[in-house]
Amino acid sequence: MRKLLAILIAGGLLLALSVIFASAENDGAEAPVQQTAPTQPPAQETSGGQVYYLNFKPEQAMQWDALAKRYTAQTGVPVTVMTAAADTYEDTLRSEMEKAQMPTLFQVNGPVGLRTWREYCLDLSGTQLVQQLKSDEFALRESGQVLGVAYAIETYGIIYRKDLLEQYCRLKDAVIAAPEDIDSFAVLRAVAEDIQKRRGELGVQGAFTSAGMDASSDWRFKTHMANLPIYYEYKAGDVNVSDAIQGTYLEGMHKLWDLYIHNATCAPTLIGAKTNEDALAEFALGEAVFYQNGTWAYDSLIQAGLTDEQLGMLPIFIDAPGEEEQGLCTGSENYWCVNKKASEADISATVAFLEWCITSDEGRKALAHEMGFVTPFKTFDEDYTADNPLHRAANTYLQNGKTPVSWSFTTIPSETWKNNVGAALLEYAQGTGDWETVRKAFVDGWAAEYQAANGR
Fold first, then answer.
1. Structural domains in the chain?
2. Do the Cβ atoms of 272 and 214 come closer than 8 Å?
3. Looking at the predicted structure, is the pLDDT value of residue 183 above 50?
4. Adjacent-strand bridge partners of 36
């Protein structure tokens, strides 16, 4: 495991090393930022083959469109990119797969998503996509076949305004002397509550941005925040998946959720109408110090006017034992799959396009520098490595011996489970529900959804 960590650091990659090959139901990965209306797919197949990519990540839609045009200009092969709106990928994929012109390239979120789309996935063994992987950890394998290949390794945590937090540290009687002093939930709570009390001195409206609970934002909590108690329960039980969650560490999420909603830019009763765009704007305008999100938000933050020098990232703490040694949440739910039901010409064109993306100067530059991806391919040397303060923060924690938090949420049994947990969190915040409702949705709902997903 330490050897693999060394490989990842040398390649500029950041990965929580427990890629989970589980059999649970998870109808779709969470997509950040604003919704993007789908463009039209290709109307008909060309004799030389074409590529139709159903893109999962709205925040990279423009970059994928630009890269597709460059490839077509060079090769003459038509490449169309259709981007699903945020939080609609699975529904869009189902709809597109029923059409005569199906996507030739699509994405699954991991082993659970693979189970849904297994019959459409081409064996990629022998392609450059597999040969150039730095580790087998980044391939979805089944029955000796490689059915999916990870293309983006991502990290999330609590992004903070470094300038504002350092300004707070200079205040008389500040709880900490430097941002690096925040190494546990107890310290995070003390800092956040003090900032909230002294927000007039700092010129902010709250310690945290609003915890928006609409579809553009609720995934940050019903999935990403919920990952922490799942991760610690798995870790304590030395398992990677479970048909039943006991909720052993759920009280820690309770404490964190209270901290988020009671030390924010708005009252807890208002979060149902707040969006991820609201949270990003509050953070960019300096109205809040902390913003839970991930490396994928970097471009949006820069476009909103922030600079690298203003950005840092902390782990998400839930008062778990030993969390002082915890790093950031790092993993992948982004796996390319080639549609084996497409024509032979389109399959060949699609594989060639992907191989060009990871080997050509144009492709590597686009993925690493324009899209900001940390990739798992050997071809991405130091000249093609995403470099921004959020990635550097993850690497610093890793180099300091901190343990990355695995993306255990990939084993969540269904999208229904997420939605029920999200609804219960919102009701609790608004005062129309209690924490017991959250606990039932989390614990009882897991068992029920797991049984339903596995035909029991």
1. 2-153+332-380 (3.40.190.10), 156-328+411-453 (3.40.190.10)
2. yes
3. yes
4. none
